[in-house]
Amino acid sequence: MKAAPADQKRLLDLAEIDSVIDRLAHRRRTLPELAEIDELAARVARLATQVIAAETEAGDLAREQAKAEGDVDSVRTRAERDQKRLDSGQVSSPKDLASLQSEIASLNRRQSDLEEVVLEIMERREAADAQVAKLAAERDELAASRGAAEDRRDAAFAEIDKERAEAQERRAAVAGGIPADLLSLYEKLREQFGVGAAMLQGGRCLGCRTSLSIADLNRIKSAAHDEVVRCEECRRILVRTPESGL
């Protein structure tokens, strides 16, 4: 392939712009905020699951407490009814009177036992409610931290995208001045190797950092100025300049 030396040198400008674009893309993919957001999202999800479990336990205890309190009320109502019968003097038979007094005593003991159960459930429920509040507060704090990290990510994305758009404009201007066949070869090599063209400096390819052999340097030295030469190691286009050492 033939191309004017000036057009070949434009490939170095294009390669430099492409390097900037690649660095911006890498920076966008590897922003520290991305890993931070993923970690925070995972922690928020775990805490959300723990909150649901704690809320379920607290709900079960609330229902258990309501049932126990209902049992206390039922026993208390029966005891109060029996006490009224006893106090009214309606029961005159000694046997029935003793039976009624025994039932009242039994109901009072039952009520006392049930009230102990209620107190125990209330303590457990209070602890469960406190755990729900603690976990929910941690979840909300982490969610806020994730939101802040997302804001930082979005700000960084906006900055990177702006720089990339500016670089793309510069690239289009440079690429527009390069012959189509030379540009096509450059793009093909860039797709294969990441870099399509590199400077030959001091007898070394700056693309693969390899020092060329004497034979290769003589071959390139004897090539016409408009001939497009390639590095034998990395196959990139070698752009000759006064710094090439030929």
From TrEMBL:
InterPro entries: CT398_CC_hairpin, Oxidative_Scav/Glycosyltrans, Zf-RING_7. Residues 14-194 form the CT398-like coiled coil hairpin domain. Residues 204-238 form the C4-type zinc ribbon domain. Residues 97-168 form a coiled coil. Residues 62-97 are annotated as: Disordered. Gene3D superfamilies: 1.10.287.1490. This is C4-type zinc ribbon domain-containing protein. It comes from Planobispora rosea.
